[in-house]
Design goal:
single chain, alpha+beta, Penicillin-binding protein 2a (Domain 2), Beta-lactamase, 5-stranded mixed sheet, 20% strand
Length: 582
């Protein structure tokens, strides 16, 4: 028994050689491992080479962001540096639904409350996992944006933008215009000078974590280039006066609308350009297309008797008459048409024709000039042409070719019918009376020196007509209602019937006044148009002339122009307005 135990123990202590793995099995295992490694290598190569763009795109879509660093839009100021359009920093809230986790209901409700949005609308935006970027609310205050950030919702973040603010509000709305929510100009000079004002946005490429926090910059930051400052020719003080007086006149006379233009008589700079009704560019809710119309620049009308000084000047320039020439002003016929005056006079000299606003006298003088020559003067005054202010949509007016004229058409054009103009064009045309016969170019922007003009009349003719227009503001003249305390003036009123279809309507008019001040050495040209006054008065001398007086008088005092007449120089208009504007 003992021998058996010993042998058994020996076998346990010396088990002998282990079973060996055959060479085939070794090769198989090695081949299997090698194949697996090869598959991994090939897969890695496929991912790195073939699928690289896709994978990089997927990673970038989730964590890489190119942020726009918005340029600060340029400031618009008046000629004295007063701000008319400025940009204030605001925040816009956005989200990345594709990488967001479900938002807890209580945080969703609080976010909706802060952004003043329905919770269902927010939930719908978050549920669209196809979208990498979506705005939740544009242009909110930084304080509100801080409250949104405090909620700590992963995937919801803010970015800085700028919102345009217009300190002068309604008074400058039509000339300045406004920008859209994206900061681009939509109307007015904001649109016309978009490239100058906008500047150039910068960019910043960043890596964000899943909560939307910036981890690092992935490229050099491209800094934004801010827009340039735009300095207008306008004076905020004069603009305010023009808008105030225009608004009062439109409301007092229950008119449809109105417009005023004020020019520097020596440089052609537009010191004021007002329209009413207007709108609030800071809050355009409820604004209608009619309220957006810049009537002084884009509306066309027949100027009526305010055209007479220009047509009479042509006859004087052509040597067809002198200032003291007396004309027969009895009613007369041109073919089947009859030319008559509202206040008939048997005869009038040039001053009398302007004072009594004689259609007969003006038309007879016009018909002394050859049609082609008459057309050439009107063309040289800028009628039928773009006035060149650079304002978007400015009207060119209508002046038909002289070859198609009939004598009656040349006659009616002499007193403002058959030709269409804008108020801005008429203001420019009247610069010939303030500048020795030279027509000035217009400028909406402040100039360092007057731009060269174009001679239309001789100095002699221009001076004679200036004297006639000053005389028209004296007793018996149609411009008495435009007189200013302490200053002489020159001007012409007009009342034009409105054309509807092919018929002139008897009860719809435009009341007009064009003039300059001081009359002896003009510094300002002011033109006024009141559309469809309906409170009883509708003559230009009764409705538009007082606006001229208030606007020109206020502007002269703002500019510190010394009075050239005593302070008791005012004259009350006649109790019954002379209907001599037609």
């Amino acid at each position: 028994m003992r021998a058996v135990s010993v042998n058994h123990n020996r076998r346990l202590n010396n088990p002998g050689p282990a079973p060996s793995m055959g060479p085939g099995r070794v090769r198989f295992v090695l081949a299997l491992l090698g194949g697996l490694f090869l598959v991994l290598i090939l897969r890695a190569m496929y991912m790195q080479v073939v699928q690289q763009d896709f994978l990089v795109g997927q990673g970038d879509a989730r964590f890489r962001r190119t942020l726009t660093m918005e340029a600060n839009r340029g400031v618009i100021t008046d000629r004295n540096g007063e701000p008319l359009a400025i940009s204030t920093p605001v925040q816009s809230i956005w989200a990345s639904p594709a990488g967001m986790q479900p938002v807890p209901p209580e945080k969703l409700a609080e976010l909706a409350r802060l952004l003043e949005l329905p919770p269902s609308e927010l939930a719908g935006k978050f549920a669209d996992k196809r979208r990498e970027f979506v705005y939740l609310k544009r242009q909110i205050s930084p304080q509100l944006a801080d409250k949104v950030a405090a909620l700590g919702i992963p995937g919801v973040a803010g970015q800085q933008e700028f919102r345009r603010y217009y300190p002068a509000g309604e008074s400058f709305a039509h000339i300045i215009g406004f920008t859209g929510v994206d900061g681009k100009g939509q109307e007015g000079l904001e649109l016309a000078r978009e490239k100058m004002l906008a500047g150039k946005n910068g960019s910043r490429v960043v890596l964000r974590d899943r909560r939307g926090h910036i981890v690092e910059d992935l490229a050099a930051i491209e800094r934004p280039r801010n827009g340039q400052t735009l300095v207008l020719a306008m004076d905020q003080r004069i603009q305010y006066i023009a808008y105030r007086e225009l608004k009062n006149a439109v409301e007092l006379n229950k008119a449809k609308a109105g417009a005023v233009v004020v020019l520097d008589a020596k440089s052609g700079e537009v010191l004021a350009l007002a329209n009413y009704p207007s709108f609030n560019p800071n809050n355009r809710e409820g604004t209608t297309p009619e309220m957006l119309r810049n009537r002084a620049v884009i509306d066309l009308f027949e100027p009526g008797s305010t055209m007479k000084p220009l047509s009479i000047a042509i006859a004087l320039e052509e040597g067809k008459a002198r200032v003291n020439t007396v004309l027969d002003t009895h009613t007369y016929k041109i073919g089947p048409a009859t030319i008559r005056d509202v206040s008939p006079q048997p005869s009038l000299d040039i001053t009398g024709i302007i004072k009594k606003s004689s259609n007969v006298g003006a038309s007879k003088l016009a018909l002394m000039v050859a049609p082609q020559d008459f057309w050439t003067y009107y063309d040289s005054l800028g009628f039928g042409r773009n006035p060149g202010s650079g304002f978007p949509g400015e009207a060119s007016g209508r002046l038909r070719n002289w070859k198609s004229w009939r004598p009656i058409e040349q006659a009616t054009m002499s007193f403002g019918y058959g030709v269409s103009v804008s108020l801005l064009q008429m203001a420019r045309a009247y610069t010939i009376f303030a500048n020795d016969g030279v027509l000035l170019p217009l400028s909406l922007y402040k100039t360092n020196a007057p731009m060269p003009g174009k001679r239309v009349l001789s100095q002699k003719t221009a001076d004679e007509m200036k004297g006639v227009l000053v005389a028209n503001s004296e007793p018996g003249g149609g411009a008495v209602g435009g007189r200013i305390i302490g200053y002489s003036i020159g001007g012409k009123s007009g009342t034009a019937r409105k054309l509807e279809g092919h018929t002139y309507v008897a009860d719809k008019h435009r009341a007009l006044f064009m003039g300059f001040a001081p009359g002896k050495n003009p510094k300002l040209i002011v033109t006024v148009m009141i559309d469809e006054p309906s409170a009883g008065k509708y003559y230009g001398g009764a409705v538009a002339a007082p606006v001229f007086s208030a606007v020109a008088g206020g502007a002269l005092r703002v500019l510190n122009v010394q009075p050239d007449e005593p302070t008791n120089n005012t004259l009350l208009p006649e109790s019954t307005p002379v209907p001599a504007d037609f």
